[in-house]
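Q: Here's a chain of 156 amino acids. Please give me its 3D structure as tokens.
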Amino acid sequence: MGDYHAQLLQQGRIAQGHNVSGPLSPEMDRRIDRDLKDREWREMFHLAVRNDVRFQRGLVPEDTELTPWLRAAWTEWPVTLAEVRQMSRLKLDPERAIALEYGLMLVKTSASLWYTIQLCQQYGFDAITDSPAHDRLLQRMTMRDRIVLQTFLLRQ
């Protein structure tokens, strides 16, 4: 987000650069699985994949053809983090490879939002985004899990 709001970054009003790589904790696994099983969260995610260019850019390279992931049936696809991990270890036929990519998009989005919540709680930050789709997903997560967190959507 600092690329789009350099002045806020320079003022120290945006914190970024926290290392969130590495293996997921068991708690993070459970949180991600909650999102993957949450029908409302999945529908919000899929709507953003279909219609929000900025959201898409965070998931796939700009020139990627999204057609395989636009079908509404993806919202009904029952998948867990364990299944995405399993698929990532296998040589897959093209159809399963498309499913793996969609699963990875779900996991990346969920994990990034959970890390946002975790960092905000740890450092006393408010959650701020300039992405309406990420804001809606974050709002859903905090409401569903009864997490008290101030969230703000920056308008451009």
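Q: Can you summarize the key feature?
A: The first helix runs from residue 6 to 10.
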